[in-house]
User: Fold this.
Amino acid sequence: MTTILLVDTNYTFTADVESRLILNEIPDLQIVALNNVDDVFRIVQNVQPDKVLLNAAVLEMYPDWNLTIPVISYARNTDSLALAAKHNIPCYGVVDTPETLLTAIENNSFVTIQKKQPEPPKKPEPVKKPEPERKTQQTFTQEEEISFDDPLVETAAQKKPEYVKENPIISEKHAVYKEQMVSERPSFQEAEPKKPVYQPPKQDSGNNAFDLRAQLAQAKEEERRLAKKQQEEQARRDRQQINEQLERKKGKAKVITVYSAKGGVGKTTISCELAVYLALTDHGRGKYKVCIADFNIDFGDVMATLSYDPDRFCMTNWADEIREKLDALPRDAYGNHTKEQLESIQYTDVQMERWLQKNNENGLYALLAPTSNEDSMDISEEELKVMMHNLIYNGGFDFVICDTGNNTRDSSYMALMEADQVFLVVTQNFNTMNCNNSVLSTLYKVKFDMSKINLIVNKVKPKKSVGIGMDEVAEALKNPDTGRPYPCVAKIKDTNDIKQANNNAEPLVYNPSHEFTKSIGQLVSKIVGNDFVLEQPKKKSFLARLFGSK
Assistant:
């Protein structure tokens, strides 16, 4: 078995990869997803994977990976390919979908990324000095034989003014020349000296390496801030979407009933693990408010499975108070109350918490069955209906998980009729399928909505060891309305870890890498209808386990 630690900050992508891995049934491959890159080294020590698979974008946030196991990468876009080449990490290339990533892992297909060669620096072109202007030599006529380019002209004119006066040509040209010389004469006035500007001397810190490390740390902190901002923005959008969905369904909890007409198939275990998983599911707005109701009122096992306190309130105490309120209402000729009378007995969520128990470790509420069979016989159908109505409409719950008995008593029948979804738990056993077929035919006769029923095949084993394959189970249980087998939403393998978890009264879903947890996660994703993140609870201390604190 090859174990790969998948590191990616995108919760949706990692969840899809795990789901696709289970659906595709890739042998000898296990993927453990991790979205918090700060926990890489801790998870590596705990899980001990064979290799680490990174999103190339993570390399820019944490470039220094000093792991003793192989590290490979993949890119979500073409820009991230350069990061893998920069850090000399093998890369699967651009991965658009979970299927593409799983195919690359299975085929072990890497891409070659060539680094860009830096361009050689261009040599500076030599600066050409301007050539001095060459003066053209002028030719003069005989009358202009005296050139005014000669500086002696003016002197000669001063010594012999009569010569200049007698020659008008020379006199005119001399005036022009003199005017030109005066205009082009350079100024000998000294410019005002510029005041010196004080410049403090440059101080060398003498620790350039430290300055570079500080700048690098500042850059990393800025990247973390931007990444956190993006995550907060995504969480805000998810929260808004969920609030909109819940607003449309406000005032009513979704009821999920887990049933089987045959005992020993593990329906109570599935009910408890499913309820705990839903209570730990975080969609950005906080945890779902979940209640598990033990309607196997004769021999309920929810209390022992989840380690609730047997000395606190249970269904019996609530039924006693409801009975007093019902006795105060008038009855019909048959001694019964109307539906309106039953629904008139209202409890707020705060009032109901008197009769419920809450596990502070996972936040799961529980309506527990009576602790004795004698007490269960005193609870009437009307009292059960009042309890169920208040749990659904007044408790503020998002989900109510109903565990039932392998019977058709009023409590089990009511849980089936009030359910939005029914999970029928079966095993690869002919007696189990015959018993469930008998109950299903009865429900069909009373006009039960058979589309609510979904199959969960528990304790799955190879056909050669039990003699019954999965196709035979599907053929044995068919919807009479459609003539097709009921949809199978989960196939849970048989493992001794489940029995050990039940004996220790610690849910197995606390271990996110276990195959059972992944199966329950697939079931939750079908219930919720979108992606989810399982929050890990803090482990109990030794004293908490010793004294039984919640």
Observations:
- The longest helix spans residues 208-248.
- Residues 142 and 169 are 12 Å apart (CA to CA).
- The chain has 23 helices and 15 strands.
- The chain has two domains: 2-107, 246-547.
